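Hi team,

Filling in the usual template for the complex we talked about on Friday. All components are listed, including any nucleic acid strands or ligand strings, so the model treats them as one assembly.

SUBMITTER: L.P.
PURPOSE: interface mapping
COMPONENTS: two
RESIDUES: 579
SEQUENCES:
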Amino acid sequence: MHQLTIAEIVRGLRDRQFSSVEITSHLLERIQQLDGQYNSFITVTGDQALKEAAAADARLAEGNAHALCGVPIAHKDIFCTNGVRTSCGSKMLDNFVPPYDATVVDNFQQAGAVSLGKTNMDEFAMGSSNESSFYGPVKNPWDVQRVPGGSSGGSAAAVAARLVPGTTASDTGGSIRQPAALTGTTGLKPTYGRVSRWGMIAFASSLDQGGPITRTAEDAALMLSVMASSDKKDSTCLDRPAQDYTANLNDSIQGLKIGVPKEYFGEGLDSEIGARVQEALKEYEKLGAELVEISLPHTHLAVPAYYVIAPAEASANLSRFDGVRYGYRCENPADLRDLYMRSRGEGFGEEVKRRILVGSYALSAGYYDAYYNKAQQVRRLIKQDFVDAFSKVDVIMGPTAPNPAFKLGEKNADPVAMYLEDIYTIATNLAGLPGMSLPCGFAHNLPVGLQITGNYLDEARMLNVAHQFQQASDWHQKSAPTAE
Amino acid sequence: MAVDAQTVEKLAELARIAISEETIDEVSTRLGDVLQLVDQLQAVNTDGVEPMAHPLDEVQVLRKDEVTEPNRREEFLALAPQTEAGLYLVPKVID
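RESULT (copied from the run log):
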């Protein structure tokens, strides 16, 4: 039962092959038995899930339930959940139980989906390996000595380990696509503003975007159809109606123009990963697509621009964690300054503190123009590269990550090496474009991700393009050895 | 690019984050590495390029200036480490 995709679960529930309570119980048991080796969940809400599943079964029996009614999912611990701890992977919020739901969580509840709990993540979504969580690192189901990628590593590992068929996640510089690539799952980062950020704990507000991690593009379409909505509570959320992203999955991709950026296949790319991506591109040619070499000349500036803009926004967003209104407070503060300094010094982990300090530096008097303003100018150049490319092609494809999953602890001593793991994904966030990663083979016996970047609000086409590849290949059906 | 200990202490004060004496050298080195990475930006000619604060050229969504949320003061106060008489408690600020 745990090998079923969301689409298969939907059909099984409608055809009365099993009930929501049955599949929910099965997955909860599996989490209890297996998650000790992955650490992909921070909180499991078993009792609540069973109640939700029973309610879903009742709605299904009435015959007019939403497509996702009764389907088990899990939420990244960055989304606030009413009455359920929402830690964002941090000691700072270890005791935080929100009295409200994020809009994304609310959307899934309205649809009747069943939440099994909250998945592990890099602290405040800062990381590319899921090693910075206060709750310990997540292990990659393909090799538990290796990282699953970050920051949505818990969400990706839970899907790869077949503990849950789909999860919510968030992507600030690649945090949906990079872990999807490293775990052989399918991850989708929508256009900035397509999914409400209300109730999603902010890291870098102009880059953060929620999206799903699933096994297939079809499942991602089902989840995005629920997640994407306009939201008056989030003024950056686009004022566009909800859409059925499953409607065009079977459209032909004959004549599709695929842009292949020459900058994505140079130095730093693992040769086996490069080979797998090229093979996937050849498969697309067989399906009738045309490959067009393009150039994104400012690609090499995406990582440096990101590591000014994201920390600058993070330093402002995380100023709210001061030990006064909620979250961690240090013991016996001597005065208010001591309360702030020690609460933040003790409550935040090393990577978070480092990024806050970098952000404070970039925004401080004397450095604002040289760093922050300059990075925002470079951001426009990066966006213009994509605008030029999309005047010639329909989608852009390349590798998602330059290397396969690396060993736990391997890059901890070198933050800059860690930052470069997001080298192919970050530009998409800076430009606000939608992106996907889907499995396209193996390198060194580990999963490889193919990245698809779409034009603004072109998620339906991206999902169609991904679904057609998955109809012609079976990489997305491969199961991690520990997850059989 | 090195960041001296004095600069780190100043940043820590600005960010209100306590950094121990033992870790200050390591923090200096790591910060220096990150700043060396971002210094690549200085070589780019951005004359006449408008800074981009938002990826999409969208009209700001506005709403009527009226209260839409209920008063949930008690629920939010309950999250605080210390409160008294409906107020947040902090160490005394003025002697």
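MY TAKE: The longest strand of chain A covers residues 435-443. Residues 6-255 of chain A form a domain with the Amidase signature (AS) enzymes fold (CATH 3.90.1300.10).

Thanks, L.
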